[in-house]
Amino acid sequence: MQIGMILVLFILLVIAIQCFNKTNKTNRTNNANNSLDVNSLGSIGFNVYNKTSYIMVSQYLFGPDFEEPYPTYHIILPGGEHNFQVSIGDSSTLLHWRIGNANYDFESRDGRVHGSVKIQMGYRAIPRNIVTEAETEGPFDAETGSTWVTLRDDD
């Protein structure tokens, strides 16, 4: 009885988080020409797309260069997405990398972990370089562009 109650509460939590954690659809950069999204606040948007059949549960979010408000722990449902903003910095940081890291577990609806992904988002002004890297464990593939990563089930 208590396990069922916990499962129901978890599902309700997932739904609530998804409802209140909508991303800004105007900042999408997953398009044919990989255009750079530099917003007026001085940050670059990086998108994580979940095209797997699993729930992506954030486990580790680190990066002193994430734009405020600092990212909170969250989930990405199958077919969902999440946007991160990495600060460009000021003139004293033009030669330095601005980095944000996000690690996720891939969980089935019963809570079992089937794999993980480590994502690193980075920007450097001089020389100009924007990178998104992803390393997966388990039956998953990652496709990356300069400002996005799409995760898929390994066929």
Automatic annotation (TrEMBL):
Domain of life: Bacteria
Protein name (Swiss-Prot/TrEMBL): Uncharacterized protein
